[in-house]
Amino acid sequence: MTDTRSFSLSRLPALATVGIFLVVVVVGFAIFAPNFLTLNNASTIVITASVIMLASLGQLLVVISGGFDLSIGGVLPLSAVTFANLTTAGVPMIAAMAVCLAVGILVGLVHTYFIVHLKINPLITTLATMSITAGLAFTLANGQTLTVPAEAGVLGDRAIGTVPWHVFLMIALVIVMHLLLSHTVLGRRIYMVGGNPEAARLAGVRVTVIGGSVYVFSGFFAAMAGIVTASQLLAASGAMGATTTMQSLAAVVLGGAALTGGRGSVPGAVIGVLLLGVIANGMSILHVPSFYQQVVTGLVLLAAVTLSRIQERARRAA
Predict the structure, then answer these.
(1) C-alpha to C-alpha distance for 274 and 46, rounded to whole angstroms
(2) Within 10 A of 121 (CB to CB), how many other CB atoms are there?
(3) How far apart are alpha carbons 151 and 124 in whole angstroms?
(4) In sequence order, what are the residues at sequence separation of 6 or more whose Cβ sits closer than 8 angstroms to the Cβ of residue 193?
(5) Residue 111: pLDDT band by 50, 70, 90 thresholds?
């Protein structure tokens, strides 16, 4: 029998929907901003979006498992300020990075204890840790912008052409996380826990271990994003990353992740990050004020959540 149902975005896979939207946005900016569709500008978009991509990798795991992490916007500046202080004090860059990553992992372990073991709502827990870590970042920076020694900025140095090393680091981590989610037992169990925790428990999955591990991953990636930001800018402050949490959430939801858990992918998150990066870059070229860009990001997030819910209802009705 021929399917006579009319075309609808609600019937398209989320990845296809955001992919189409990305193409439309790129074409639109290419028409109205002559300098938009150039190799140099494409490189700028990727470089700028790499920090959000790192944060989104951790956020993606948490969202797939059925939670969300609001602390990213606090862990990122705390990591950046810690990196600046340590490298300025003469600590080798690798050792400074290790300390910063340990701080991110520690925050993830704190989330594990309160969210997984004490069953405290992720919203309350991660909002509290965001406030704590952001406050610590401002305290360690004495409310100022710290400088990072040039020798500690290797991640921001150019590797090939105008592309710095941290972009290749980001690409490597994207590939690793895609393989983890798609081809490992841990990845399958993260989806199981997010889709149906009780069924996962009955299937022998250690739900508390899986539920805790995703917050540790998120803390790690938020700290890495802070290191990359400080290394790229050769500066760090407590005000860094103020919008990173919302951007990471918007990116993973745009890419098809469900806030109810059990669904999402690394390729989807990549497209979501690129879409946000293209919008921000295009609006900057058109000289749109930054506060309007924040409004647009919020509207895009709201639209993504709404479309996700419509698509979910369409799947259930099919």
Answers:
(1) 8
(2) 11
(3) 39
(4) 65, 66, 200, 205, 207, 210, 211, 261
(5) very high
> What length is written for the chain?
318
Cross-strand partners of 236: 146
The single residue listed with the structure tokens 């098809």 is 256
Q: Which residues pair with 146 in a beta bridge?
A: 236
Backbone φ, ψ for residue 66 (5° rounding):
105, 10
State yes or no: pLDDT of 4 exceeds 60.
Answer: no
Query: Are 56 and 280 within 8 A, CB to CB?
Result: no
Query: Can you give the pTM of this predicted structure?
Result: 0.90
Residue with tokens 């972009």: 167
Q: How far is residue 150's CA from residue 29's CA, in Å, rounded to a whole number? A: 35
Query: Across the chain, which distance is largest between two alpha carbons, in Å?
Result: 73
Of the candidates 241, 235, 183, 187, the residue with the CA atom closest to the CA atom of residue 214: 187
- pLDDT category of residue 13 using cuts at 50, 70 and 90: low
Q: How far apart are the first and last CA of the chain?
A: 15
Please give the C-alpha separations between residue 194 and each of 68, 117, 142, 187, in angstroms, as whole numbers: 11, 17, 40, 11
